[in-house]
Structures
1.
Amino acid sequence: CVLAICVVGTASADVTVPTLFSDHAVLQRDMPVPVWGTASPGEPVTVTFYGQSKSTTADDIGNWMIHLDPMSASSGPHDMVITGNNVITRTGMQVGEVWVGSGQSNMQRPLSDDCDAAAAIDDATNYNMRFFNVTANGGNVSTTVWQESDATSASAMSAVHFYFGHHLAQEMPGVPIGLIASAVGATAIERWATCAGSGKLYTGQIAPLQPYAIKGATWYQGEWDARGAQDSSKYYWQLPCLIEEWRTDWGQGVFPFYVVQMPKMGISSIHIVRDAELQTALNDPNVEMIVTIDQPGNDVHPPRKDPFGVRLAKLARKFEYGQSLVARSPFY
């Protein structure tokens, strides 16, 4: 009897999906959307969402994936039903624009630390934004879930990424905005790409997000690498290789990558990182960069992140969404 129970138990594992497909998730519009998970080897799996029904069979180690057809923006809310040996239902999902924000402390720092926090937090419920905040969850992608924008979730969100999404939501009414944040303070670029070095944070906090459909990524990092000329000079090749690795592993083409150029701060080789960021933007037509050296102060952690997020969002409005505006900062 015990043997029979064990055999039955291993033969019919429940179908699962990552927490990226939790309640309140935002799926990327206007492109194929992969949905994936695990099940028993050979188990039929069907995903139903927004008028579509897609089926597949789990492979011999129990992995499965389907691709939803491109969908228009919709605040829904829509339910996603995943059916295998069991049934999973996710509610309140939407279709809109999804962006990843990553880097070190200036991307990590929450909105609650910003000098304009009170007004921004008060306004957080007025726009349709959703957050997948890996940063606030200690870097654990597997237990992070989507949250609707409110005073609590916005307070913990990356200030730069919040202001980026907030500006997009203001200028693109009717389009849900999904923001994924995965950043860690005091980290070198080599930790965010295996091609650049150890890649430990890339393996732990970026790769598990793939291949979730996204529009693009924003990047605010480089302070750690500017502490000496030897490390900072590596940035000329490390940043381009990071961008290439992310794009290749995501498997959805040459998506836009927006870089925050280092502002004024008292770090010895910051000018080298700043130039490496500029050269990366000049050499890749799908990399854009915001200039921040005009911002007041000389703090490694600028206390007001609104201009940073808004400048990034203006790039997206012009180059991704076709709006007519002056978006680029002055370049030498």
2.
Amino acid sequence: TERAAYIDDNKEALSYRLRMIEEAQEEIILSTFDFNADHGGKDILAALQNAADRGVSVRVIVDGISGFLDLRGNPWFQAAASHKNIEIRIYNPVNLLMPWNIQARLHDKYLIIDRDMYLLGGRNTTNLFLGDYSSSKNIDRELFIYEIQDDPDSSLYQLLDYFEQVWQLEESKDYICSNLTDKVNDCILELEKQYDKLTEQYPEMLEEWDWESLTMETNKVSLLSNPVQAENKEPWMWYSLHQMMQEGSEVTIYTPYIICGLEMYDDLSSLTQKGIPVEIITYDVASGANPWGCTDYLNQKENVWETGVKVYEFMGAHSCHTKAVLIDDRMSIIGSYNLDMRSTYQDTELMLAVDSPELNALIRKEAERDKTYSKVMENGSYSYGENYEPKF
């Protein structure tokens, strides 16, 4: 009963969010790892405030790192929290007196509208991922899922149940407006003005969208997740992905980072030893947005190669933040999970497993294109795709 659209453009990603929020009649749920009060973030805040003014219930949950760095004392988020129809919670807030808890993070990114539709993927709520506000961008992929009839077994209801688990955790703390200052009141008014500007800049947000014609048919959509508690985790996500990959005849993995433990190396080796070719597309370290992830790959890449997987180091115009797995010509798995130790053992993570030949063909076509912008180790030396241009 669920249809899917594939979103791989930052401007389109913002347009979808604005239109979805505009369509909400009862409830909006937003989960994000990173939420900035930059242009893209304020666009979302303005749309959420307008929806709340219409009487829509809005619940937002943000990871504790962003809560500490971005939301704490920020008048724009204080303005949102002051609204009677907006609730904000922080997952595992940073407590400098308890540094041993700081590693467990909320890495989920999704937006749910009523009981009708949702977006899920790897995009944070910042300029790097939404709109066209910055010359520096992170390119990502996400899925829009549209429910054509109410089905309690659908992935939409799986996601709603998941959200309620996270929302009700003891580790999820209320973020409140402690003082309605003049600055906070100014931000409320500025968000109202920002909403008016949005309707001029993105007039499509006020138009009726034919969700069915924008989406493609799927055989089945399923939600994969890690445990939700803010503690070291059993590797549910990696286990699920590895089990699925073992059922395929070929595998392509998109991941910004490759930071594996010994057991993950063993699992990758087990795939190639079974004769399943595994390709990984990651970014070239010269174009990476995360210097720590880049450094670790430089230290570990020979261990990665020894598993028998073929690694394409992608050099695009922008950093590639995509997290996806393609299995054969039907299964596409997209979401927030990186092929690293954090995503495996410490963070909450979500991936959507979608059985759809049409979706798989779309992403596989992009993968083939991205390989031409990559270098790959073969027979002890690098070979270069026809469109690869080094960056120094």
